[in-house]
Design a protein that fits this description.
This protein is α/β, with parallel strands linked by helices. The protein folds into two domains: 2-227 and 299-351, Luciferase-like domain (TIM Barrel); 229-298. 47% of the residues lie in helices and 15% in strands. The longest helix is centred in the last third of the chain and has 23 residues, at 256-278. The radius of gyration is 20 Å and the shape is globular. 43% of the residues are buried.
Length: 352
């Protein structure tokens, strides 16, 4: 099992915060973290920060977690990925996702219609570019070259590089099956170990249908990490974030995260939280988040409790553990990271 961490997000890029983030991420590399992911929501973009990290790190892989496909043309996505691979000595992972209707339509002004079709077309075009082919495509959302104009099919000037891994952040059953058909990795969210069939199970189905070995795909999921004996005290700070995810990450009718948690065994609870949130009863929504959902989707408690949770993730099929180290300051966050790195190493050693 590998370990990954993410940085950035909606509130990233605060004044004088970047240097602190870089210091933490460089320490994480020294501690043995395998992958660093950049987040791209409505804060920092997912590329420029990784380019900086490519210059100040040496061996850790660097991935976009995720680039929003509606924010860039597919060819620009391919050009960016080829550039990142070149400047990072092929440590780059291209993580892609469809985002959600509020961001896609509200921020980028693009219709969210047929998100899976748009994702398929993006991956198809990116793969053409990676292969060094002249780019020609006729799809529902993308038609290259543009018909009736003066353009012609072009080949990118950068050298071909078909070794760049493509990971997809997907949640719906059909999107998960597509991930199994074409992707190198699954950048998972809303993963519940006891309900792994709701996510990983669909990826496996897609892989088998495409004649692929499901074990050749990387499966990533995880959550916050914090050690301590006061479990309720560790649960409380997590409740608002889970309530926001269930109630606000999407619209009242389209929330992929809520759907995934529902399929994973928390349907009644997820729908209740969403209803309270949409009705404006935010505090009640926070209190309605069940303890068990928080415990299954994070790594909280004593060393033995966290070890059992990591083991549950591994037994459910997760090969890359994404962790979010928590603490009052950088040292406490590094201590949390070090603790779970030690746990993963010990479990890996037990297998060897």
């Amino acid at each position: 099992m590998k370990i990954s961490i993410a940085f950035g997000g909606p509130a990233s890029g605060k004044k004088r915060d970047w240097d602190t983030q870089v210091e933490f991420l460089r320490e994480a590399e020294q501690m043995g973290v395998d992958i660093i992911w950049s987040a791209e929501a409505w804060g920092m973009d997912g590329v420029s920060t990784l380019a900086y990290l490519a210059a100040v790190t040496k061996k850790v892989q660097l991935g976009t977690g995720i680039l929003q496909i509606s924010a860039r043309t597919p060819v620009m996505t391919a050009m960016t990925a080829l550039s990142m691979a070149a400047i990072s000595d092929d440590r780059f992972i291209l993580g892609l996702g469809v985002s959600g209707p509020q961001v896609v339509e509200g921020l980028h002004g693009i219709s969210f219609r047929q998100p899976l079709t748009r994702l398929r077309e993006t991956v198809d075009i990116v793969r053409q570019a990676f292969a060094g082919e002249k780019i020609r495509y006729e799809g529902s959302h993308h038609f290259l070259p543009r018909p009736g104009g003066e353009g012609k099919a072009l080949r990118l000037a950068q050298p071909a590089n078909e070794q760049i891994p493509i990971w997809l952040a997907t949640l719906g059953p059909k999107s998960l099956e597509y991930t199994g058909q074409v992707a190198d990795g699954w950048a998972g969210t809303s993963f519940v170990p006891t309900g792994a069939a709701a996510t990983i199970g669909h990826v496996h189905q897609g892989a088998l249908a495409a004649g692929r070995d499901p074990s050749t795909i990387d499966y990533q999921a995880g959550g916050a990490v914090q050690f301590g004996n006061d479990v309720e005290g560790l649960l409380a700070p997590r409740r608002p974030g889970v309530a926001f995810t269930l109630g606000a990450m999407g619209s009242a009718t389209t929330n992929f995260y809520n759907d995934a948690y529902s399929r994973g065994g928390f349907e009644t609870e997820a729908q209740k939280v969403q209803q309270l949130w949409v009705e404006g009863q935010r505090e009640q929504a926070v209190q309605a988040v069940p303890d068990e959902l928080i415990l299954q989707t994070n790594f909280l408690g004593s060393t033995s409790e966290v070890t059992e949770r990591v083991r549950a993730y591994r037994e459910a099929g997760i090969s890359v553990l994404r962790v979010q180290p928590e603490g009052a300051d950088m040292q406490e966050r590094l201590d949390s990271l070090g603790g779970i790195v030690d746990i993963v190493r010990a479990l890996n050693n037990d297998d060897s």
